Amino acid sequence: MSTSPINWQKSSFSGGGGENCVEVGTGAEGVIVMRESDDPESIIATSREKMAAFILGVKAGEFDHFVN
User: Fold this and answer.
1) How many domains are contained in the chain?
2) Residue 24's closest CA among 42, 5, 6?
3) What is the pTM of this model?
4) Which position among 18, 28, 41, 55 has the lowest Cβ density within 10 Å, counted as fewest Cβ atoms?
């Protein structure tokens, strides 16, 4: 993981205190990185292609059963 600072972004739908969210950013060489705001040292990384496929699945409702 790069030592460059990551500009983390979280959803406007996150809880008021900001501790109930997943943050997303761009790491070295365009890798997408994610972390939970209440555990910022635990970071996962994925490719742009995999993230795009996941977002398409979310938009299509494929993961709704995890939150309903």
Assistant:
1) 1
2) 6
3) 0.78
4) 41
